[in-house]
Amino acid sequence: MTRFSFLAISASAAAMCSAAAPAAAQMVMIPETIRAMLDAALEAGNENDVSTIVKYARAADPLSGDAVLAIAEKWKADRAAQRTQVIRQASFLDLWSGKAEVGGYLTTGNSDTAGGSAVLDLNREGLRWRHKFHGQADYQSNLNITTREHYLASYEPNYKFDDRAYLYGALQYEGDRFLGYNNRYSASVGAGYSVLKTARTRLDLELGPAYRNTDFTDDTVQSAIAARGTMNFSWRITNGLSVSQIASAYVQRYNSTLGGTTALNAKLIGPLSASLSYTVQYESEPPVGSMTTDTTSRASLVYSF
Description:
It is built from five helices and twelve strands. By secondary structure, it is of the alpha+beta class. The longest helix is centred in the N-terminal third of the chain and has 28 residues, at 62-89.
């Protein structure tokens, strides 16, 4: 079961609200135009549209507006109750959503260059637990010589205290010999908080201690305690255009790491969208011969599910 299963739940909740409206709504005559718009929004399951109709209905006619509010509140309560029931009955393999992103290029003739990138993000929202998985691979070659090879995989479970505060655990693997390390393993625990959480904007912050083990390309191995901090910001500018900024930092006595990705996403058709992104990663003390900063620009096709 995926998030699209909730469309059926929303339609069912809307039908229940129309059939069993609150007593206040039954006693007050709601204008036909407002009632038609409200029914359409309930049927579509769009909470933003429902809230907008309630706002303007109460401003135009407080008496009937209160009846509109009563219907909307009952619809939201029924919808939340049904969603809770679905989550309780679902197995761990259900309710996953996410996106797959693929980009690449190939040139021949005066130059012989090939490159590609792939990203997979998965997310599962439960009543108390949230699970996040991120996988990424980048590759580039020029004249059959590899010039970039980067791999990353991470898993993060969250235990939610309420709608905003949570505890997190994070496991991560990285490999990038061009940044000076063959393998790097990281583990962290800490606290997270959703500073902004609206229909269009979200900002999550996390902070906690971490442990990192790094196998550098000069055959040295470093294990150290670090402080980990992350920021995850997203803003839906319009229904078809959004921007996001993800940043992370591992600060420790020796080699610290700072990274960030800025992305612009434009909806194309259905679940498909186009994405332009720019990534920066900084290593404070890489091995001799490796640069401190690496950047990657991507143009990708994204499939959301």
